[in-house]
Structure formats: structure tokens, C-alpha cells
Amino acid sequence: MKIAYLVGVFPTTRETFVSDEIIDLRRRGVDVEVFSWSLPGGEIVHPEVRDSGILDRVFYFRYRYLPRVLLTGTFWRTLAVVTWGRHRRTFPGLRTKLTAAYLAALIKQRGHRHLHIHFIRGLGRHVAAGAGLPYSFTAHCFEQDALSPEAQREYAEELERAPLAVAASEFVQRGMQGLVGPAHRDKIRLVRCGIAPDKFSAAEPGERPYDVICVAGFGPTKGIEYLIRAAALLRRDRPGVRIISVGGPAPFHREFADWLQGEPARAAAGEAFEFIGPCDHATVQTLLRSAKVFALPCVVTEEGRMDGLPVALMEAAAAGLPLVSTAVAGIPELVVDGVTGLLVPQRDPEALAAAIARLLEDEDLRARLGQAARRRVEEEFTRELNGQRLAEAFAAVVAD
User: What pLDDT does 261 receive?
Assistant: First the structure.
């Protein structure tokens, strides 16, 4: 079984679940090659990615590579479609058009029978069409409120054409199934972004110098600004409180990151809130063991955009941390209020601060919720379980 994965950028610390998924498929005997739309920009490369050998099977577009595909019909056919076709506005600029045509031709040239896509669905379906391949995609969030009626119709048509669609949460699965008739609902398979719980272990109670940790990229959906404001509130009653934010900006969120770090509440939070920056897996695991509570107050933006179910929440749960978050998208599937963590309203720093304070003041509650969070991950969010689900889903639709 040979599958081409088309991704936005590879590798990247912001989407480690994609590289984990690819590595797991290859371990199960699936022949996966990765076709990256963009080059990584000085990203940290996790040791598991480097040691897996997958970096030798990643392909990028460069102008000097064009002669490899100039004599193929696939290249010229795809270039014509993205230049003059109905969806040509999806491909602004010459480089974008050449990238689509080059990758379509290379995927076809290398003998792939199926294309799978994460995140860049709009671009990916045209590359798949140019290569003449069936394709599937993983939806991490279903932003129905952000879709116009026309966009919903196009999404439904895409679901009906695709042999397989993967939903990363029950929330996403229900949303996509609501767009299509009963005949197409079974092809929408639930496959969570699994983690390896054994890589995360809880520290002893006395070994946790940080009160709260947040692991997230800087994006408007993460709600980090509300955690900063909550830090300022907590500092008034707990002068020594320590909250750390691990992660950094995606390239398209740099303006937001600059605003976030200069936000007035940042000064009010003072030393209570600290930005750590991007870290590799091993460092994140160590930092999780050094904290008492994990907080990620996700929000739905005015445009209807939201996170699906952040992997960082799964990793924190595996480390035995109680979780504080919001009831956005698939998050309540992991953060069960009063069972594995506490849910607070969106954009409410007072409620967020109160939930964190409650956990910091009650060690028994922290332990109970953290243990339940760990069990929940072991039951439903492991790489082993979800890797098997994905491999079976591909086996049902991909020709050998």
C-alpha cells in the first residue's frame, strides 16, 4: 500500500501529530512518502522524526527540480487547471501554480495510488485531481459557522467524492456527517490524533516548581491572552504564582505574537507569566512534569475558527495533570468537567483564574482529576489504537 501525504510544511513542531502518524503508518508497513508544500524555516526537528528515516522521503518544490517533470502530461495539465480553471484564485502567484503542478507530476511519477491531506484541503484536492488520484483528508475541526452556504455545498460534494474522510474528534465527525446523506456517512471515520502515554509520566508532588503550564503555538484560537490576564489576577492573591507558556508563533501569526507579548495585561502579570518559546519533545515532557496544572483556554474567533482538540491537552493528561480549558469543538471529549479537569467559559479570565486557583489550593482534587485524565488518554487517545484505526481505514480504500 503506497500513499502520498501532502502537507503544508514538514517537519514542524506545530503539527507533531502529523509526523507521528506518518511514522506509525510506516512502522505498520505502509509505504508513505511526504510532499511538503513549503520548506521548513529553521524548525526544531524532534529526534523521533530524525531517527525514523522519514526525512529521506520528503519532497519539496524548487525551481531547479522542474526539469524532472517538464515532459509529463500531468505537469502541464495541472498547470493549466490552476492557471485558468474554476478555482485558479486558490493558486495566487507563479510559484504556487508551479508547486501544485510539480507536486502532482512527482506524486504520479513515483507511482502513488492515493493522496492523503492534512489542513490544506483546498490545495490538495486540485493536486490530487491533477495527478488523477483518489484522495482522502483529515479534518481537525469543522468550522460550519465559518462556511457560507456555497462552501458547505462544495464541502458536501467533496465528502461524497472522497472514498474516505478522517475526523479527528466526534465533534468533527458529527459536523461532516450532517452535510451528507446516510449513504456517505460511514466513510467519515473517527481517528484521533493519538499520543504515546508511556512517554509521559507524572512527577512527585514536591518536584513541581511551576504552578501552571500552557503548551501552544501563538494563534488567535489558543486564548493565551486570557491566560495572561488570569495570571495578573492570580498574582494579586498569590504573589509567587508561576505560569509558563511553551511554544511560539506560526509564520502567519507573527503579528498576533508581537501583540500578545506587548499586551497591557502582560505587564500586569509581570514575573508571574513567562514565555519559554518553542521546545523539542523531550523538553516539553520535562516541563509538563514540572507543573501542577495545565491550562489552555481555547476560543472561537469572530470568523468562526477554532481548534479541534489540541494534542497538547492529551500530552498534559498523559503526564497526569488536571486540565483547565473551554468547551470548544472536541475539547469536552477529553476535558470532562469535574472528572478530568475543569471547563470555563471562553474569554473569561476571572473564571479561568478561579478554576486554576481552585486546583492549586486542593492537592487531592488535582490528583484525582489528573489520574482520571491519564486514564482517559489510555482508553481513547493512544497512537497504538488510532494508528490501527487509520491503517484499517486506508486498507479499505487504497489499492495495493
Answer: 73
Cell matching residue 150: 456555497
Name the 3-class secondary structure at 171.
helix
Cell numbers linked to 32 = 508513505
Locate the DSSP E strands across 63-144. 115-118, 135-139
Q: For the chain, what's the residue count?
A: 400
291-296 and 273-277 beta bridge pairing: unpaired
pLDDT at 266: 76
DSSP string, 300-329: --TTS---SS-HHHHHHHHTT--EEE---T
Cell of 86: 474554476
Is residue 5 within 8 Å of 32, Cβ to Cβ?
yes
Determine the pLDDT at residue 160. 94
**CA–CA distance, 299 with 327 (Å, rounded to integer):** 9
What CA–CA distance (Å, rounded) separates 109 from 12? 26
**Cα 394 to Cα 17, 148, 199, 371, 384, distances in angstroms:** 18, 31, 27, 34, 16
Rama region for 159: left / alpha / beta (φ>0; ψ in -120 to 50; rest): alpha
Alpha-carbon gap, residue 168 to 334, rounded angstroms: 12
CA distances from 308 to 193, 243, 248, 352, 400 (A): 10, 24, 19, 20, 32
Q: Which residues of the chain have pLDDT under 70?
A: 42-44, 143-146, 203-206, 250-254
Residues 240-276: pLDDT tens digits?
999 999 987 766 666 777 777 777 777 788 889 999 8
pLDDT number for residue 144: 67
| Rounded-to-integer distance, Cα 58 and Cα 32, Å | 10
SS3 15: helix
Predicted local confidence at residue 252, as pLDDT: 60
CA distance 38 to 7: 8
pLDDT given at position 205: 64
DSSP reduced 3-state for 244: strand
pLDDT digits (tens, 9 = 90+) for 307-334: 989 999 999 999 999 999 999 999 999 9
Could you tell me which residues are beta bridge partners of residue 275? 245
Q: Select from 298, 360, 357 the least CA-distant residue to 325.
A: 298
Choose among 134, 195, 147, 140: nearest CA to 167: 140
Query: What sign for the dihedral angle of Cα 314, 315, 317, 318?
Result: positive
| Euclidean distance between CA atoms 227 and 6, whole angstroms | 34
